[in-house]
Design goal:
It holds the Pfam family PP2C_2. Residues 18-265 form the PPM-type phosphatase domain. InterPro entries: PP2C, PPM-type-like_dom_sf, PPM-type_phosphatase-like_dom. This is Stp1/IreP family PP2C-type Ser/Thr phosphatase. With 284 residues, the chain is of the alpha+beta class. It has a single domain, classed as 4-Layer Sandwich (Phosphatase 2c, domain 1), CATH 3.60.40.10. Helix content is 36%, strand content 24%. The chain has 9 helices and 11 strands. It has helices at residues 56-77, 79-84, 90-114, 162-168, 174-177, 216-219, 224-234, 238-251, 275-283; strands at residues 17-24, 34-39, 44-51, 122-123, 125-131, 134-140, 144-149, 152-155, 199-204, 210-214, 258-265. Strands 2, 3, 4, 5, 6 and 9 form a 6-stranded antiparallel beta sheet that branches. It has a 5-stranded antiparallel beta sheet with strand order 1-11-10-7-8. α1 (56-77) packs antiparallel against α3 (90-114) and α7 (224-234) runs antiparallel to α8. Mean pLDDT is 87; it is low at 83-87 and 275-280.
Length: 284
Amino acid sequence: MANLVREVRAVIPENALEIAQCTDPGVVRSHNEDAIFADSRLGLAILADGMGGYNAGEVASGMAITRLAEDLERLIASSSLKDHALGCDVATVERHIVNEVGAANFAIFHASESTPRYAGMGTTLVLAWFYDNRMSVAHIGDSRLYRLRGDDLQLLTRDHSLLQEQIDSGMISPEQARYSDHKNLVTRALGVDPMVDVEVHDFDVVAGDIVLLCSDGLNDMVEDEEIALALRTLRGNLQLAANHLVQMANDNGGRDNVSVILVKVLADFSAPRGWWQRLQQLLK
């Protein structure tokens, strides 16, 4: 699916975040059921990997991205949240995410129930909302978010999948999981039920961090060590890094659609704290 692009009002300082993105149907699939959205001015990155019958996965992921991008843009640009952005707190941001993801979930579920050809459709979701030198991360399913800090790549999400449950219970080892036949069986998805349990966590970010959002078409084809090496080597050219990660997945077989969003933190974007700074910000 094509990237969703619109003109939006900046709420993150210019040159604080750099974003690169790339999506591809892969070598085997005939069409792309992934959908992505990212905007450095809003501090938003969203990725969805659709599932379902013919074209239904593409519909589900497209609905998720469109609905969340529009609703969160409206929310962030609202006067109440702009004022709040001068001193964001984690609980408020997480509450907004849960509410908006819940609304998107119900919209997809309703479309699935009311249109026979879309029956059973759903999508994974991973979302990052950057604010006040932090990011709130929401995810459902097995799309992932990693953070490269220095030379250390850390997976910050935990898959909602049968495979992850088997690892957690000790039934199989992480090494055995690499060769499992159950890699694509998710235990949680957006739009499958009237309500969904979205997992949300908050993390700090610092200048130099690179955040990677990806569909499982990347991490099923490319080992974490190879992803880390590519990011460390190409961190100076973010778009080249994004393109290279997708190409690596395709070179290794490209059995699924593959999408990546890279967000590099370039500078501080903390909220002003003193009353004078708050007044200056309001007068801009």
